[in-house]
Amino acid sequence: MSIRALWVLTHEKGESVKVQFSRRYPSVEFRAKTFAGAHHVSVPEDCQIAHLLLSELGLADPDKPYIAARDDCSHQQRSPALELRVGSSGERTLWPVLTIVQGGLILACVPLTEVPPDPRPSLPSLASVSQGLALLSSLQGFLCGTGGKTPEPDVLVSRLATLPSVLMQICPLGTPLDTLPQSGMLSAALAPGPGGAQKQPAWKTGVHRGRAVVSVALTEMVKSMQYGNQSKQDLWDVHGTVTCKCEVEGVLPNVTVTLTLPPNGSPLQDILVHPCVTSLDSSILTASSVEGNDGSAFSGPYKFPFSPPLEPFRLCSYTSQVPVPPILGSYHLKSQDNHLKLSVVLKLHESVRNSFEFCEAHLPFFNRNLMGNVDIKVTSGQLEVSKEKNLLVWFLGQKFPKSREVSLEGAIHFSGHLAGPSDPMCTDLTAYVKLYFRVPDLTLSGCCVDQHSVQVYSSAKPRIITTRELVSSEYYIWNSTGDAPVCSGPVIL
Amino acid sequence: MTSWDQRISSFFSSPSQFLSCTTSETFLAELLDRLRDDKTNDNKKILLLSVLSEHPTVLCPTTSAGEETAQELVSILNFTSLKSVSLKCHLILAITNILICTFGLSTRTKVAEEYLNYLYMLIQDTNDNTGGPSLHSVRAIACECLREMETCHPGLLSQKLEALCHLKQQETTVLHQSYSMLYTQALKNAIRILSQQQDVDNGKLRNVLAGNEGFAWKSANTAKSVLSVNMAQVPQLPMTLDFKELKSIMTLLLEESYLMTSPSQAALLRGLVEMVAMVPGISPAIFKSQLLRLFGTTEVELMHATLFMKGMFTDSLFTAEDEHFLLKRLVGMAQHPLLRIPEKIFYMDCILHFPENRPISSSGEECLPVLVTPQLTLSLFPTVFNDSTTMLCRFNLLCLVHLEANEEEDGQGLGYLIDHVMALLKTVDNQGGRETLVTAFRAIFIFLLHFNHMENLAEKLIHRLGELYSRNCHLAPNLINLTDRIQERFDETLWSVRFLKALQRCIVEMPPSQLTLQSLGWHLKILARVAQESQIAQRSTICFLLDILVNSNLCERRSWNVGTAILTVCRNLLQHPTLNQMFIQLADLLQHMSRQYEDTDIQDHAQFYYTLLTNLSWEKLGGILAKTPVGGQTKVRSLSSLSSITASEELSSCLTILQAESCVLRLVKINNNAFEDAAPTAEAQTETDIYEVYREQFKTPGFASEVTLRYHLTHVTTTDPRFDRIFTICLHFEVDTSHYERVNDIYVPCLFRDRKPRDVSVTLKPIHPYPTTLRASAIFTKEDGQSWHTHLPDVHVSFPEIFLPVPLPLGVPLQQKEDVFDRIWDAASSGEPSASETSLFCFKTGIDTLSDLIKKNFQGYIISQELNKWKVLFFLPPRFHVLLAIREGEDAVQMSIATDNWELLPHVNSYLQNITAHCSSTS
């Protein structure tokens, strides 16, 4: 369960590629040779790896419209493992090569194959693959943080500079011993373990000293696709995460967090838990989004006993099916000569707290000339045309009006001669309104963590903070007069 | 000298290139020197060590080199101060890597033995009782190194299990994980070795568990056989043994696994699963208590270990209900919004290879698990919002699912899949960018792979793709690629033929207004591909081509590319089995091109094809035009490559002359050992006026008008192995054409670096015999047929190099030569011809030096020599003379100069100054 080599590369849209970091594990390579015998393909030198990876990821030579080696249709990128064609004529293949691409950053590693390489084994039969994936994921978190944004070049450089010493501890000989610390989550100075009879968990390098505080934050994200069309089913789904930060004394303190649903709340599905959870009740895992649930499914309370690590962590996550979307919208576009007539109506559901941190509706217009005269009236909020003249932003503020309904009506003239940006998903009447909002102290599923339900078994009584919020993600309202792309499979079979 | 940082980074970038400039021994010696040097700081030493740690076999290619290096590093380690903890860790790491990779461990070298003892000594200090916390990380690395050694040489620690178990129990800091892993690894290997032995009894098992002896040095072969044991056929210990102790050891390990990090937990679980599989007396049920925790995990490595457990124990641990639950869980995770994309894709792979309790096919071939049904995978339908990889994975999985299920259901799922393909093509139609395009074609390929037998769907796709092509003809390469790949996969399917037929129709029926020169290029590519299909009638193609040639200004636009593309179609048509039926039309087409197409090359080729068509049978045409096999080591230049003018990459590489970045060749002057004075014949010649004869000679055109300079043609000293053997070298010279006639190119058949240089004679025809510089360049061919162009260093032709002895007929007596000298002198002094001039050059020198000087420089040109007096005559082509009368005076040497071309005087002057540089001179 080891990896043979690890790389961090940067590129700018397929050009000026640079190997920023590389690490080889020769003793693992030694084992790979023993297993593969004559079939062994050694790891290529750093100067070759960049082009091989870019070509395989379809990023090489971005100016050339078609390159057989890069664009062949039978060449399937169907798994997280790439196949690099090494050697002078590409007759030897290095497989599997795991990669994570984030913006201009490419992370790659070659996991060890511990079974005969011919015929090619399946990916799940290789023990090292999941270790490689986990290592790359944590490396991504180490370099980029949890926000999913590619860091600025100088930040990246400074993080890369500390990578060798981190790997010396995490993965000195190619076998990952731990995951990399996530940037932005590095814990403060700690007292070393007491060194008593109690074994110190390997995932906890010290103990907390000081005031006991437990924070539990529940965040729900809501996704929606609304078509306003009989033939297409509107969709909305919710997923939530519970993040904890526990500053509690002791080597292995016990904490229990309980999630509860309101009566008749639909059960939490697809629950995933952090490895620090000590035990799970089987009923917690029964509800799944894969197959429909009958009404008898377990609906809480969901108890999670655990012993917390020092850094903030994701205790659990879930998905949920809620009966209605928080905001129901409709969008109508009509094209006339060189102007568009548009009308948007947004309705806030009565069950949703009418108190937003922010709420915005974005109306992009791609593949058109730039916006000229905008003649639009709104019943609430303010309008703004973006600098680029291809986006209309409607700021709805903190509250919907009493009627819980807002509308936008008017026409836009596209007069400019300059063509705006393009997006294949948004052409002509295939257009959408995208909503961005955040509502504090609300979950759609109704799920909540009661402050009194958080139990901490320790001598000092801790302060307990619980929060919850609802955030939009991918919240689309498609123009009902256009041909919107479908985003789900058939509903009934 | 480049800094170490730069050298090391260039080494890491390419060790092979780095070592082409130096040897591994030298570099290794330098590294070790710097490592021993006290002045080198720890960070620099760590950087230097990283070279040895990551590329041990590059720097130590043999076991003995590895042994020596390891020994060196051990002694450096011994002298490293206690405070340099990080350096110590890196040293330990480097030594471990060297010993493992250079077989120092497997051949039981002395240094390996001592080092192993040292590491083992380090890990005795549990809880840092004696060494204190500062040695904590050294101990951690020592543990890991021992584990790596045990992993690479299974059984090494198999006689120390009791001691290792004790250490593991003792340790309470975070390092207990390392001790646990070390113990588990050693225990697993020991059990595996035991299970391969005969007659294992309770005593043997007990001995292994209670072992507290030395290291078990085994032959490399046993180690190898243990290392690469295939888990599909697990060896087992006899059922009858008493496994109570072993079971309690395993239970304890499992209980404490909660204290480990997820990656180590996963590794431990796998180790325990393998052990339980080898020990029939221990039930897999010991894992039962961990299952729920594992089912709910977010961590991919733990889920993966659970699946491994599932595959190993199937229904002895997992009920049918468990199995169904696990699969459902996997499907849920394959689309869980909170997991990362690579993990989700991995889970999709896990669904495809789900280890079922009762699989239908026992062989390893890929087939969908029975439990994976359309109902189960409903949530995995791909959408246009997915990223490419996710989309293709989901699409592939769903295609497999619906291929299986198609007979039973009403085809709604399949309908959705085809709708999805159409949606993808729509985004392509909306200028969706390259990635969308490639992804769409990959999806189509997957679809056809599974459903090409379904006529109506395949037909629908043909129709849609044709429509797409008519609007986006730049998709031609993708479409051709798709047809090629489908044809390769299915010999019998006609999809590709039907599709190409549709494309042909689409093109030939295209209204002329839609044809542009650019789109025509794509259409011709498609038509060339269509012409390769024996089942497609080609008459419409020919009509189309003739039509555009006759009814447009294509012929006048003289585009070589378009002409070539048309000829490529023709070439394929010439090989078409229905050639006879379209003979006349094709002949018309070729004839039209050979007459009307305003590009000579195209005309010639059209004429050539026409001749082939009208003179050869179809069978012979096939033989001649058949493609040269590609990929053979030597690319035979057959007639087919002559007859093909397709602008293929291969051909263009033959046509292109590549430019060498630096000089490859140079010319080195061959030093003429001054030619001897022609041996004078004693007999007197017939009494003719030799001066008149001499003058008369110049009336013959070209008489004595050339200077021949001899050079060696050699490689430059910097080596570029690509150019070691080169052929058909054409040397080209550029001269100052106001003073010299053009120099002819020189051909040299070949030049090998390891053989003698070639002699090359450069013939100069001066108009004005002044010193000059030749700019030389060469075109040559490498062994692989590539042509290269290179410049040579400039060749300087100095003034004396143009001197020739006076071209008198052979055998003229000295006396008559002097006579000629005097006559020229007299003429020059009297201003005949008009450009004549005389001059004087004086310098001081001793008498010995003077005769030496004259001998050294004027040998071959001396006409007469008396005491203190010399007459020297230089002839300069085409008809000029420089005469020197040298007289040694009392305090200086006088050189009287006469010439029939005064413009030569400055050169004469600087030449004389040059050769008498060490003497003072006045002119």
UniProtKB/TrEMBL annotation, chain A:
GO terms for cellular component: AP-type membrane coat adaptor complex; cytosol; late endosome membrane; lysosomal membrane. The keyword Lipid biosynthesis does not apply. It is found in: Cytoplasm, Cytosol; Late endosome membrane; Lysosome membrane. Its main location: cytoplasm. It is a peripheral membrane protein. Belongs to the adaptor complexes medium subunit family. Probably part of the adaptor protein complex 5 (AP-5) a tetramer composed of AP5B1, AP5M1, AP5S1 and AP5Z1. This is AP-5 complex subunit mu-1. It comes from Hemibagrus wyckioides. The lineage of its organism: Eukaryota, Metazoa, Chordata, Craniata, Vertebrata.
UniProtKB/TrEMBL annotation, chain B:
Residues 725-795 form the AP-5 complex subunit beta-1 beta-barrel domain. This is AP-5 complex subunit beta-1. SUPFAM superfamilies: ARM repeat. Keywords: Protein transport, Transport. Pfam families: AP5B1_barrel, AP5B1_C, AP5B1_middle, AP5B1_N. Residues 29-99 form the AP-5 complex subunit beta-1 N-terminal domain. InterPro entries: AP5B1 (IPR038741), AP5B1_barrel (IPR048980), AP5B1_C (IPR048981), AP5B1_middle (IPR048979), AP5B1_N (IPR048978), ARM-type_fold (IPR016024). Residues 242-621 form the AP5B1 middle domain. GO terms for cellular component: AP-type membrane coat adaptor complex; lysosomal membrane. Residues 820-915 form the AP5B1 C-terminal domain. One of its GO terms (biological process) is endosomal transport.
